[in-house]
Amino acid sequence: MNISPYFRNLRSAYFAELDDLTFDSEGLHILDKRLAQRRKEMEFLVHMMEISPEMVAVVFHKGFRFTSLSAMEHLLSLESDNLPEWDSLADAIEMAPWTQELVHVLQKQPMGEWFLTVAAALEYMYNKPEHPQATEADDEEEEIEDAEEMEARTREEAAANWMVDQGFDRKE
Q1: pTM of the predicted model, to two decimals?
Q2: What is the mean pLDDT of residues 114-138?
Q3: Which of 10, 85, 100, 133 has the highest local Cβ count within 10 Å?
C-alpha cells in the first residue's frame, strides 16, 4: 500500500487522538462517551477541520463501512489537494445511519466534503488489520474492553495499596 506523506502524517495523529479519548484518568474505558460528547460539539468542531482534521474526524469513528478496498487504497495514495469529490466515493463507503446529521452539518461548510474524504481515509487506516486496536468482531472488541477495564482496576487497586503502605489512608 502506498500512503501519501499527507495521510502518513495524519495517521499517527488520528490514532493518538482516539487513544487519548479511550481512557479517563482512572483508566476506565470511556471512548464511546467521549465520542458522543464530541458529536454534540460538531457546530464548533467544524472550525478545526482544516487545521486539525484528526481531532474532528474521530466523530465518525465506527461510522464508515468500506465496500471498495481498492478505492480506499487509491485514496490513501493522494495528497490533500488531489482528493476526489466526496460523492465519487459513494460506491466505496457506506455510512452508518447515525452519521447523517453530522454529514449534513459538514456539507454546509466550504471544506466539508473535502473533510469527509479525509475522515473516511483516516478511519479506513485505523481499521486496517495491521492496526492492533481495530477488530472486525464486536465480541472481540468487548472482550478487549473488558480486559482493559479489569487491568485498569488492578492498577488502581495496586496504586491504592501502595499509598496505604506509604502511610496514607485508603480513599473510598
Answers
A1: 0.73
A2: 76
A3: 10
